[in-house]
Amino acid sequence: xxxxxxxxxxxxxxxxxxxxxxxxxxxxxxxxxxxxxxxxxxxxxxxxxxxxxxxxxxxxxxxxxxxxxxxxxxxxxxxxxxxxxxxxxxxxxxxxxxxxxxxxxxxxxxxxxxxxxxxxxxxxxxxxxxxxxxxxxxxxxxxxxxxxxxxxxxxxxxxxxxxxxxxxxxxxxxxxxxxxxxxxxxxxxxxxxxxxxxxxxxxxxxxxxxxxxxxxxxxxxxxxxxxxxxxxxxxxxxxxxxxxxxxxxxxxxxxxxxxxxxxxxxxxxxxxxxxxxxxxxxxx
Length: 284
Ligand SMILES: NC(=O)c1ccc[n+]([C@@H]2O[C@H](COP(=O)([O-])OP(=O)(O)OC[C@H]3O[C@@H](n4cnc5c(N)ncnc54)[C@H](OP(=O)(O)O)[C@@H]3O)[C@@H](O)[C@H]2O)c1
Prior knowledge:
The chain is 46% helix and 14% strand. By secondary structure, it is of the alpha/beta class. It has one domain: Rossmann fold (3-Layer(aba) Sandwich). A 7-stranded parallel β-sheet has the order 3-2-1-4-6-7-9, with helices on both faces. It has a two-stranded parallel ribbon with strand order 5-8. It starts with 7 loop residues before the first strand and ends with a helix. The model has no long low-confidence stretch (mean pLDDT 96). The structure holds NADP nicotinamide-adenine-dinucleotide phosphate.
């Protein structure tokens, strides 16, 4: 479909974690990968590794949060990329971060930033690629969501709100595009071994003395330490992405990691009140 490559894949947030591992894995498997980061330098090591024997990884500097009209924004860069590479067969909306803190403490601008990266950027990128995919009768849009896109936990309300929104986007877009051969899926990871936790942004007022959450936050931290021991290798997500690309009929959602599967299953089988109590008890 794309020269000598199996397909052309565009992955946002390729500089670290899931995006980096998936880029390298897909290059090794014969795909052409265009990977973005806000800083080109962060993609250097990956490009060197991926391009040892042949140019397969194409790094680009792209800040997915720049407003439409600003130099270097998505709307300016994407059409050029499509022209350069003839087509983009697969979009992996991976770039994202977690905003942490009691919802009462989160400012509107912090919440807006969370949505800009985790919701609006995937929306804008998908919009820009849909017509090209539709014209060719093939396309895969894969949104890296989270178990938090299905189950919200205390102090992760901002992040969960953004991933719930991404889930809704995935669900509606999937139905709109399947008549045209373009499929949309979400991957809902549990806890994976990346820089996600260390890159987590804490709301400015998350631990404000003027708010009454101190004890609950301390309890949350103690419990969370135990959960952090449960981490999986992101290569599993890279392999799943390949499976989705090659599947004739990809599913809507792919929970991955036992805690993600258990969390989602629990929300379906337990009565709401009991499930909320369980989540609350395991979180703080
Ligand atoms: N790791 C987990 O346990 C886990 C669980 C569930 C879901 N996820 C999801 O998986 C995706 C990838 O995360 P990861 O675990 O690989 O974390 P990571 O190691 O922190 O990597 C995040 C990537 O996203 C980009 N990014 C981060 N903040 C950004 C921002 N404000 N604006 C634009 N780009 C930004 C970064 O690129 P640059 O900084 O180079 O631009 C980086 O390459 C995210 O959407 C995350 O929500 C992760």
